[in-house]
C-alpha cells in the first residue's frame, strides 16, 4: 500500500490548480492500494449510513449519494488512508502552504440509479477565513461518464455569483445558466482507476447520475491550511459545521482540535 511516499507533481501543476481551481492527477494510487482500502471503506459506509428512504421518496440532494463523514474515527484502516502523507502533501503543494490539517473526510457513494449532484461550491458550508481549502476526490473504481464522475467549471473559483446557494435544485438551475453565460469550460472526463482530483473550496462542480449497475464509490478528504483560522459563520450550515467538525474552536482560532490534526508539514 503506497499512501505515504511523495507523488511528484509536474512543474505546472500548482499554476494549473490556481488558474482552474481544480486539477486531475493520473495514477496517484495503484490498483493494489485501492483494493486494500476499498472493502473497508465500503463496509463502514454501509454500516454507518442512515439514509434508507426509497429513491423515489428522496430529495434531489438525497438522491445524489450516500454521505458518511469522518470514517477515520470508526476504522484504523480507514484512518491510515485519511492520514495519507502522500495525499496531504499534494494538497499542501497545490495550495502553496507549509502544511495542511484535516477538516473532515467524507464518503460519497452514488447508488445505482442515483441522481445528479447539483452544481455547488463546498466553501458555502465552511466557516473558514481564507480560500486555502481543498478536497481530494478519490474514486475507488474506474469511473466512466455513465457513472457520474465529478465535473468542474474551470476558473469558477473566482466567480462570486452563487456562493450563497446551498446544494439543491436551485443551485443546479441557477448555476447551470450563470456558468454557461460566463463561458466557463466544463471538464467532465472519466477517471481511470488510480486517477484522483483536487478542487478548491470555491470551485463550482457537479456530477451526473449513475446509470450503471454498480455503485459509484468515492472517498474524499478535505484539507485546510494548517494555519487557517475559523471565521464567524455566515449561515446556519456554517454554524453546524463549526460545532460538528471543529468542536471547541471559535472564530479567530486555529482549529487545533482532536478532529483536525495536521496531516502534513514541510
Automatic annotation (TrEMBL):
Extent of the signal sequence:
none
* Positions of the UniProt region annotated as Disordered: 246-266
Which keywords belong to this entry?
Dioxygenase, Oxidoreductase
Q: InterPro entries of this UniProt entry?
A: Phytyl_CoA_dOase-like
- Show the stretches that span the lipid bilayer: none
* Matching Pfam families: PhyH
Question: Recorded GO terms, molecular function?
Answer: 2-oxoglutarate-dependent dioxygenase activity; iron ion binding
Q: Does the keyword Hydrolase apply?
A: no
Protein name as it appears in the record: Phytanoyl-CoA dioxygenase family protein
Starting at the broadest rank, the lineage of the source organism is: Bacteria, Bacillati, Actinomycetota, Actinomycetes, Jiangellales
Amino acid at each position: 500500500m503506497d499512501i505515504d511516499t511523495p507523488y511528484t507533481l509536474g512543474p505546472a501543476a500548482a499554476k494549473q490548480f490556481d488558474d482552474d481551481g481544480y486539477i486531475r492527477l493520473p495514477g496517484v494510487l495503484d490498483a493494489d492500494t485501492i483494493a486494500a482500502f476499498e472493502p473497508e471503506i465500503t463496509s463502514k459506509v454501509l454500516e454507518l449510513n442512515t439514509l434508507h428512504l426509497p429513491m423515489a421518496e428522496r430529495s434531489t440532494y438525497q438522491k445524489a449519494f450516500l454521505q458518511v463523514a469522518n470514517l477515520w474515527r470508526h476504522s484504523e484502516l480507514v484512518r491510515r488512508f485519511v492520514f495519507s502523507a502522500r495525499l496531504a502533501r499534494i494538497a499542501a503543494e497545490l495550495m502553496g502552504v507549509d502544511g495542511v490539517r484535516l477538516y473532515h473526510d467524507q464518503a460519497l457513494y452514488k447508488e445505482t440509479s442515483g441522481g445528479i449532484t447539483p452544481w455547488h461550491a463546498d466553501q458555502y458550508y465552511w466557516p473558514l477565513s481564507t480560500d486555502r481549502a481543498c478536497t481530494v476526490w478519490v474514486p475507488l473504481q474506474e469511473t466512466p461518464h455513465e457513472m457520474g464522475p465529478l465535473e468542474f467549471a474551470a476558473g469558477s473559483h473566482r466567480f462570486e455569483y452563487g456562493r450563497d446557494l446551498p446544494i439543491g435544485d436551485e443551485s443546479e438551475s441557477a448555476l447551470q445558466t450563470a456558468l454557461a453565460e460566463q463561458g466557463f469550460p466544463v471538464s467532465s472526463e472519466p477517471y481511470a482507476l488510480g486517477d484522483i482530483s483536487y478542487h478548491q473550496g470555491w470551485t463550482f462542480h457537479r456530477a451526473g447520475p449513475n446509470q450503471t449497475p454498480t455503485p459509484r464509490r468515492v472517498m474524499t478528504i478535505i484539507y485546510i491550511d494548517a494555519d487557517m483560522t475559523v471565521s464567524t459563520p455566515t449561515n446556519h450550515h456554517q454554524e453546524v459545521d463549526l460545532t460538528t467538525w471543529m468542536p471547541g474552536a471559535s472564530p479567530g482560532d486555529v482549529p487545533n482540535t482532536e478532529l483536525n490534526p495536521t496531516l502534513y508539514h514541510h
